[in-house]
Amino acid sequence: MKDGRLEIDNNRSERSIKPFVIGRKNWLFANTPKGAKASATVYSIVETAKENGLNPYEYLRYLFERLPNVDVNDTTVLDRLLPWSPELPESVRRRPSGAT
Fold first, then answer.
1. Are 92 and 62 in contact (CB under 8 A)?
2. Is the dihedral of CA 15, 62, 67, 34 positive or negative?
3. In Å, how far from its chain's centre is CA 69?
């Protein structure tokens, strides 16, 4: 492969899932398919928020405040809530280390 935009390995993705692999016995409470799916959804949202430079707690809070009032069939509204949306408020963006 000669595409320089692609990473040469998948170390970054492996590092991001390592906490879940190491702690998998902690999540045995997800003993139903619905519980496992809910956990996977939350972990996916949190890790995607991190990868997009968002504060996961603030991003989840932002989503939980807005999603109950959103028409989930309106993709334009949902697009504005995605972690890479430029329309997200600064309050959900991570602050650099040492910033106040």
1. yes
2. positive
3. 21
